[in-house]
Structure prediction request, 261 residues.
Amino acid sequence: MPGDTDINETDARLALDRVEQRRREVIAEIDMPRWYWWGVALGWLALGAITDYAAAWLAAAATLVFGAVHSAVAQRVLSGRHGSRRLSVRAEVAGRHIPALVIGFLLAMVAATVVLALVASADGARHPVTLAGATVAAAVLAGGPRIMAAARRRLADPPQP
Amino acid sequence: MTAAEARFDELIHPATRLSIVALLASADWIDFAFVRDRLGLSDSALSKQFATLEAAGYIAVDRPVSNRRRRVHVRLTAAGRAAFDSHVAALRAVIATSEG
Prediction:
């Protein structure tokens, strides 16, 4: 019982601060593996090129393969709990929002690809989807890690109700 | 989830062990080296702390082999988690009592 201890309020606060600091150190390890963002970016780039240079059926097949591979890989990495080989973050600490955040980001990138390709096509570009794919691939590489950093900050300092 | 009963734990409370258990409480498992690096302890000093916590039934040590390398993974047991939650509740109770 608390009354049975000789610790005072200051000691208790110091101990709780220590606990909080360690929780944040584990949260800092929440991430997606670097190879995931590179894989998505390269896949995006390849899909854009295939759409421009190959037959329509091949582009459709490649899109299906990309979706299937991503789906298989995402089941393991999307939670962000296994970004480090040094630990596995507890599910209740990582929360349930990271997969939705990443999927939302990727859907926004799909929309951006379509818009960019249409704009490039209207502007007379010879390879509009390749151009759009390359642009979005760069955005994935730059934006993915930033999305995860924002998620970590939010987990470490959740907004007060 | 129900609130843990406040119970001060003398075994957990010392700063080093509290840090170890607090790290483990946020993870399913943690590699030995991660804990060592975070706490700035030597292998032997950390092993001693782990032995104390393991003897109390608060942690379990696993030795999986990945990529032909032997690793040491440490995790909190159900008893360790319950003790940690109760200890944190006791610390909060101390603060609440002095504020109240």
